[in-house]
Automatic annotation (TrEMBL), chains A, B, C, D:
This is 5-dehydro-2-deoxygluconokinase. GO terms for biological process: inositol catabolic process. The gene is iolC. It comes from Vallitalea longa. It catalyses: 5-dehydro-2-deoxy-D-gluconate + ATP = 6-phospho-5-dehydro-2-deoxy-D-gluconate + ADP + H(+). CDD domains: KdgK. It is an enzyme of class 2 (transferase).
Length: 338, 338, 338, 338
């Protein structure tokens, strides 16, 4: 049981908004100067979360833009093959390009990325791409913070949230702060705060919440204070993550949950946050309490960091249950055999 | 009496933010193609309002940027000579230029303007220009909507309002919608709404409120519905203007006031809104009820449209009182003789 | 007699290309912070030269763009009233603005300007605005160097010169270097050199030629070396100006002429170069030798600097002849009485 | 024997300027929507030509910019490992990105590409990166036309050619027209023409020369007319390519050579032009007549199109000789066994 109210009689469970991108993961370990081949995957935080919940059985859709080229068509095909409704994904004709993320894995804990984000097509989705009828068809929407980084995507997000509130569509907000997409931390704090006031569920790390509060309350580092700040607006559930030390969920009714952790020896660190959010949102939408939902998120994250890709590795619910059942401490799982 | 609470022991009454510009008013009547000389005045809606309240006796200050050139120095000198605190007006060094407004008066009721707004310096003021200590020194701040038209001015406004709310500094919002400074009406609606939620007093025309509501409630044209919408957030007083038909003020406590009107045969139409806002804000800060404050605003507007300039023509309180006393119907006043 | 060959049977004498702008000259002496009124004039170096030769009796035309607003219409009207063919002046619809030059005259020798050049419409004229049929109708074209400062005007100039050479239309090049319109001196040197190679007559100051040669021959300061460098390409007449010390004209046949000077006590320094170029070009097109042409240019310059405006003050040929006849040393002329 | 004069006592044979990029070639055949892995290679026309001549034994260098990231370091390492002097390759710190070319091979004759060129670092090399001392050290420089597509690279090329002419460094110009990097064909024609006037050897297709002449001589399609046009400026050798129908070389002295062709069944079509230019330039620098040089170019091209990559596949001189000797008609060569 949890405090979220999802409207019945809606044919979609979750609509994600924003970034549809391509990951190009180095196939060899080591610095990218020396790696010679790359594998292509669907990427982008809301895309990954959408894939995650879809694989767990939710009916999901997407609002966003793709480039009018081979990568754009690859993304559409991938959504289609994953059973995701792509009727509100627009093909952009301005010449904007799919965002690219090249990844290198120097070691399991030393991973870095090289981004191509100039004129990124995912930031071109605009207010006209957000249809009131579509928002009304879904029980919930998911905003990933990077969509706030630039216009017209920024305004499209505020419009979508306005419409969601009008139609009692629950709003999930995964902060997903990526410094390289922003001009300044002050600008980020402004827009993240304006959005956070309007959301039902906010998921972020302690560092991300510090940034949100840098103008209104720069000295606070206390999770309880943070949670209550947003409960004063519209939040019902807050998740504050502390990395390996685990996560905490708060409810507007004053409950606090400590999240499970399943330490593993990772192949890479990418994808942990997205798979966590996917499992957690799925759990809440099943009506589980936040503690149970966090357990699903944590298990999903541990499975994904044990694999080479993000999107392709998102587990189904059976795999998550097997993982939790079999888990017996920090070691390298042969995830394929779970 | 009104429902606003101004903090005591603050050395400034009102800080205006945003546009400091130059008006170049044609000295001759007729189309600008044919006019040959122009007179230079301080311009910009918040600048005019700041001058207006200052002339009425309030202690005011300004947060904004001026160009590092002759026009920038002219503006600083003008503020200084008007007794306005300019300690938080920054000289911009990026090469941005003072916004210019050339005006032509083809006839008293057919006036038009030619704007120079590329790389306008007034939109360059940023979060760093907004000092918490300064906001704390004032009883109220004034936001003029054009400051929301572009970054970094847009973010600076949200930061200023956040700090004002933290320190119980009253926030006045004059919508002041200028289509040419915006990319689209949808974008305008988004940011105006986000700001309106945070303000104590909102002043706008019926058309401006229609635009604010175009995403959340596109079919509404009812002043009562509009007023109540913003009372649900933080507004305490709402003014909705209907041009020559007069204005209405609403309070969060449910009172409605009909504003006085003083029709005159104008020299030009520019400056009516700014002088109205100046008189109205002054009245509220004196503790008058909204009806009385609207009367001061309307008289001030009638005086200003009877003069050649905006900023230079802002009346003092004695002139307003004389005007009201002597007013006896729509005719051309010889304002200098009041 | 001179060495230029103008094609017969062409209905236009000279087509100027590029800048059509507005000058706003302070009516009062003193720093612009304190001046209160401005008078409006046509401005821009090629516009002024075009007016100058037109007043001297040449049939001239213009290729360029004006803004779709009151200032654009003012410029078209001015050209029309001056008898200049404006059939190839395009009204730009991109939202670009007329370049503005505010001038202040602190003293006759201490003048400065404030430029508005962001998104200047004069730099928007493009290759499509340059019609081969029009270039073919004229005996000569005039390029003013500022038109090279940005695309698409830059490419339009090279296209016009290519067509002029194809049709034996003489190319005059007035270097007219304005640092504020360029990104770097190196860039300027590159494009000025590329253009200079293609021109028949080049007019510039010693400092301007130093800049042209900064990449190919950075140490040269010798006028003879400079003149010969460009005679190796296509130049036939070179004018190198040394301010008050006078000017020198060189011909490809090896002759050198020393220009006359008519020192006067100026009202302001603006417009000297444009009126000089106008008189000089007129003289060459009359078939005078370069020495005589320089005398007309120098007299015209002295008349213009004794007046408040540039374009309005351009003299006719009778006034120039009277000035030369009456000149008797450096003193303030009452130009209106000549 | 040919008509080019290379200065003796210079420690570099050829300096290439401009594009250093990364190719990401799909490893699988088929549309890129479906390919899943990519192999990384050095790319960019002048980079490929530089690699080609280096592998043939010339001492070469490069002037250009690379990104301050993993791809930039990969490029530097590749040049270093190829024995190319990279002392004048600058690491750009503006945030510009390495240009990327994703290639797909749907069939040997149906290949297409997907370019990432926003804020491409190769177009950021500027006049300051072009050192007179370095140009003086080389017998020849190579300009690839794409470097003219934007500032500041455009101006850097003109500066380099000016310095090359000053120091009798031979200038090779490979037109290499890529429409997607340019704003309009007219703009391209202007800059290509300005550059072509200054070059000693010009290599292009018939279509490329048609574009160069579109302003000055739009109706010409005759190779002889084209060749003579540029001989009137500074050209000594002109190569005009007609695809599979072969190529023709002209000399300023009036000789014409028909190039050899070695038809093969290609793996892909990429890289043909670059390897051709590499072999041809090498031949001319060995003092061979243009016919012999074209044979080397054609053989090199046939070898490269039979391989998966461009840069990696550039042959050494022994391989070219073996290929020519063994060639016996159009069939698929097993290039690795030559």
């Amino acid at each position: 049981m949890n405090n979220l109210v999802f409207q019945k009689n809606r044919d979609l469970d979750l609509i994600a908004l924003g970034r549809l991108a391509v990951d190009l993961n180095a196939n060899e370990m080591g610095p990218m100067e020396e790696t010679s081949t790359f594998s292509k995957y669907l990427g982008g935080s809301p895309a990954n979360i959408c894939i995650a919940v879809s694989r767990l059985g939710l009916k999901s859709g997407f609002i966003g833009r793709v480039a009018d080229d081979q990568f754009g068509r690859f993304i559409i095909n991938y959504l289609k093959d994953s059973g995701i409704d792509y009727s509100n994904v627009t093909v952009d004709e301005s010449g904007a390009k799919t965002g690219l993320t090249f990844t290198e894995i120097k070691s399991p804990t030393d991973c870095s990325i090289l981004m191509y984000r100039y004129n990124a097509v995912d930031l071109k989705f605009d207010i006209c791409d957000v249809k009131e009828e579509y928002i009304k068809r879904s029980k919930a929407i998911l905003i990933s913070g990077t969509a706030l980084a630039a216009s017209p995507s920024r305004e499209a997000v505020f419009a979508a949230v306005e419409l969601a509130r009008k139609h009692k569509t629950v709003v999930f907000f995964d902060i997903d702060y990526r410094p390289y997409t922003w001009k300044s931390v002050e600008e980020t704090a402004i827009y993240y705060s304006l959005l956070a006031e309007r959301c039902d569920v906010i998921i972020g790390t302690r560092e991300e919440f510090d940034m949100l509060e840098m103008i209104s309350d720069p000295d606070n580092e206390d999770d309880d204070v943070t949670a209550n700040k947003w409960f004063d607006y519209n939040a019902k559930i807050m998740v504050i993550k502390h990395g390996k030390e685990g996560s905490y969920a708060y409810t507007a009714e004053g409950k606090k949950y400590t999240g499970a952790v399943f330490p593993v020896i990772p192949v890479k660190t990418f994808g942990a946050g997205d798979s966590y959010a996917g499992g957690f949102i799925y759990g809440l939408m099943q009506g589980y309490d936040p503690g149970k939902a966090m357990e699903l998120g944590a298990a999903s994250a541990s499975i994904v960091v044990s694999s080479h890709s993000c999107s392709d590795a998102m587990p189904d619910i059976n795999k998550i249950h097997r993982f939790i059942k079999q888990y017996d401490g920090e070691k390298s799982y042969d995830v394929k055999n779970i």
